[in-house]
Amino acid sequence: xxxxxxxxxxxxxxxxxxxxxxxxxxxxxxxxxxxxxxxxxxxxxxxxxxxxxxxxxxxxxxxxxxxxxxxxxxxxxxxxxxxxxxxx
Length: 88
What we know:
Blueprint: H1 2-26, H2 47-79
């Protein structure tokens, strides 16, 4: 039984490794060294711009969505407050 689990784990690892390598090889970042005709890259982002764009913005979006959900739940509880007074 243990031998069968080892074979399954090895097979799963091989499939995972193969799919990860395939994705990495076909990703656009792998071809970033070669410029296309008419390509006009802009200026790079600073550290603060990168952190703001990829860290602060998603966290702020999460907080806004969570706040909207909480506000909606509290409004629904206030509307349906009479259903809590009924005992079964």
